[in-house]
Amino acid sequence: MSESILTVSDLNANIEGQQVVESVSFEMLPVGVTALLGRNGVGKTSTLRAILGLIERSGEVRLAGERIDREPTHRIVQRGVGYVPEDREVFASLTVAENLRLAERDSSPNRELIAELFPDLTERSHQLAGTLSGGQQQMVSLARALVNDNRVLLVDEPTKGLAPLIVVDVARALERAAETVPVLLVEQNLQVVRMLAERAIVLEGGRVVYDGSAEELLGNGALTKELLGVA
Ligand SMILES: Nc1ncnc2c1ncn2[C@@H]1O[C@H](COP(=O)(O)OP(=O)(O)OP(=O)(O)O)[C@@H](O)[C@H]1O
């Protein structure tokens, strides 16, 4: 079995004095997509933000065996933890090309991979990002992370609020991206989870309540209803 790329042990996090992540532990294999699931407000986004040091937290986080939980966020990112936040942070008044250039931190950015994964963005390289559709902005957001070599990519609800056809495009881009970098994916759309993830970790009240096969979870209607609140 391959070694864990991301190991989270007894992670706790608070927002304004409220504990939002409670003793979360899991290991992530260095391949494919691991889905981080759970009902609204159970602490999925907070878990990603705690791994990145964006909120107050305690516990251990290791990247390929090395502790990163005592480092500031910019160092964690430099070490290769890519982040695609929930709110598609693009610079609206800059072009697509400028958005990508600003994200480049490696001396040899993955421009060919971006062109291959997102041909539409290449065509729109001179368009202002603020004039793109939600789906296109999500592609820019993903491309901004993939332009650098990451060891792991944390992606938060990439298909939220997108039209069904665009959801499929985003899922395909993620599937292709996951061939180059392991992805920890927060996703509410279970069709997307089914398509992409082999493994699922489910949170409830800030704690891990399931860690196992995504197929087994989603194939078990009663368990899916119990843990995710949907049939
Ligand atoms: N900025 C904030 N200020 C106060 N409370 C917050 C803040 N951000 C999150 N919380 C609270 O922390 C808890 C966990 O939120 P979090 O966003 O991590 O959950 P989530 O599982 O990602 O939810 P969702 O699926 O709705 O995005 C919730 O109770 C939420 O209300």
* Hetero ligands: adenosine-5'-triphosphate
- H-E string: EEEHEEHEHHHHEHEHEEHH
Largest sheet: 6 strands, mixed
Give the averaged pLDDT, no decimals: 93
Adjacency order of strands in the biggest sheet: 6-7-8-3-9-10
Shape: globular
Q: Going by CATH, what is the homologous superfamily?
A: P-loop containing nucleotide triphosphate hydrolases
Number of domains: 1
CATH class value = Alpha Beta
User: Stretches where pLDDT falls below 50 for ≥5 residues?
Assistant: none
Beta-strand share of residues? 25-35%
The value of Rg in angstroms is 17 Å
Give the number of helices. Answer: 10
Portion of residues in helices? 25-40%
Please state the second-level CATH architecture: 3-Layer(aba) Sandwich
Structural category: alpha/beta
How many runs of DSSP E, i.e. beta strands?
10
What does this structure look like?
- By secondary structure, this protein is α/β, with parallel strands linked by helices.
- The protein has one domain: Rossmann fold, CATH 3.40.50.
- 35% of the residues lie in helices and 27% in strands.
- The chain is built from 10 helices and 10 strands.
- The strands form 2 sheets. It has a 6-stranded mixed sheet, with helices on both faces. The protein has a 4-stranded antiparallel sheet with strand order 2-1-4-5, covered by helices on one side.
- The protein is globular.
- The two termini are 33 Å apart.
- It binds adenosine-5'-triphosphate (ATP).
- Residues 15-16, 20, 38, 40-46 line the site of adenosine-5'-triphosphate.
- GO terms for molecular function: ATP binding; ATP hydrolysis activity; branched-chain amino acid transmembrane transporter activity.
- Keywords: Amino-acid transport, ATP-binding, Nucleotide-binding, Transport.
